[in-house]
């Protein structure tokens, strides 16, 4: 079986473990310990490892200006930050408890720590006045009692005041006086001087006594006060207070100089024996700083500001004494009521200054502590946030709140937030304070580059210079920093079997598209390509746009004779060789009718490097005309063969070389195709109109094409 001591120890361990699990630690430490003294092993009690304790950013926060405790970073121990005086901190309080919070920033956790400051015997009993004068009449009856000044010891328990002792001349003074100790309403000891033997002024006009007060410490501490008794003639009436106890209630913050209460005592004696004076008989040191007593009138007034949050009530005793040293006592109870004079205080215990825009909903960004020193409804605090921000408040622990994200964040819409936390108490009128949390939203690469146009096109004249600027493409990225940095590159492709990159290039930073070589319209009419814009994120996002490059034709090619070939022209003699082109020769009878076919087997065709559509249309027109001319010529030749002559000229007229030359001189047409402008023209030029067979087409032949001139 376990003994009683083991069971108590087990219950203590279980209680400490339960309190640690629920976020509360309790320790005790004697007062007056030097700075850095051990209080408790926080790391062990919370189950935190020392490396994690250092990395989590653990700190101790205490209310008020003094920080009485701190955390030792190497050991994880809670130690004293200052020398602690229990009597200075906890006046009129039996159990002195200091509270602080342990903030674990890395986990956004807070733990309440309570440290009880235990008393040591560091104070000796002390009297407010080291010397006291007492005047008694020689007619004072033996057995009369006279209250003496009480000693005060701020220590507690056995260390506080325990006993009084009277000393003096054993053969004379102690023969006339003795000491009696009465218990007060609160259990305090009240010394009284008892007249044991009648006084005789003629025997002794003065008596010297010493009152010693002792506490129960080990070793005991003592304090003394000297009592001088003066023997006077008869004073048979003592002052009497109108009330044995005076009670008054006053709101805190009452103006200095205000009268709280007036005590009054009467003495039926006359002259000096009936002159009453008032004084504080029992009063705390703090109350003596706040209150003033008029010794003549008995008015108690405010000397310094009363603060409910500091001390809510004062108990004191007033003594009324006449000129013959007879006196009476009255108790005064002053209750200070609370008013709404404290603004709620919002403190940022831990806060982030930046957050990623992809942070999930519910991410904690700040840990707040709210405090109002008032009581009741005046101390009830309600916290709110602006409705326009994507954050909300959550109750964390007692007076602690957490600010968490309520919605998804988008840096491209809002890049910074100034979150205002407002705390309002329940007073009338309510008081309000606020704190601002500045939060910057960090960018995430969630936006791809977007081109300014859906597609691009440009026209480039052929024979351009290598390196010529074609156009610029531009894309923007709504992200920030490296995520918004856009670079451009060409997509894969080929032109006439060669890589696209050998024809054009794009500058990575500006999006400028350049031609790397000179284009020839007769080879490449159009180039289609893709340009990709890619940002600098990780991973990178990209988008594509199509670019169409049209090559514009220029008049950079002279006409060429495709048929007949040059070899056929050379066989006809010097005249063909002398001209710039070639002259086709056909024999035609002089009797040919207007519109008769002249050119049959030889077609003089001049071709320029023009567009394929125009060339195909021209060839089609010539082919149709040639077909009709062939049918007409066949009919004329049949008529000529039947008569043996052309238009009355014998066929023998055209026999031999001389006849051919004569025919060429009289009946010939020069056909040429010029390209001296954007429009092509088909011209027929002849020497003598009267000797040249007409070349006008028959009436049923279609009209010539637009842009083709026929002077005949």
TrEMBL record:
* CDD domains per the UniProt record, alphabetical: Cadherin_repeat
Alphabetical keyword list: Calcium, Cell adhesion, Cell membrane, Glycoprotein, Membrane, Repeat, Signal, Transmembrane, Transmembrane helix
Its lineage opens with: Eukaryota, Metazoa, Chordata, Craniata, Vertebrata
One cellular component term (GO) for this entry is: plasma membrane
Q: Which InterPro entries match?
A: Cadherin-like_dom, Cadherin-like_sf, Cadherin_C, Cadherin_CS, Cadherin_N, Protocadherin/Cadherin-CA
Where it sits in the cell: the answer is:
Cell membrane
The UniProt annotation puts the region (Disordered) at: 691-712
Q: What is this protein called?
A: PCDG7 protein
- GO biological process per UniProt: homophilic cell adhesion via plasma membrane adhesion molecules
- Transmembrane regions listed in the UniProt entry: 602-624
Extract one GO molecular function annotation from the record.
Answer: calcium ion binding
> Where in the numbering of this chain does the Cadherin domain appear?
68-127, 128-241, 242-346, 354-451, 452-561
Q: Which SUPFAM superfamilies match?
A: Cadherin-like
Q: Where is the signal peptide?
A: 1-23
Q: Does the keyword NAD apply?
A: no
Predominant place of localization: membrane
Gene behind this chain? Pcdhga7_1
Mind telling me which Gene3D superfamilies this protein's record contains? Cadherins
Q: How does it sit in the membrane?
A: Single-pass type I membrane protein
UniProt keyword annotation of Transmembrane present:
yes
Pfam families recorded for this chain?
Cadherin, Cadherin_2, Cadherin_C_2
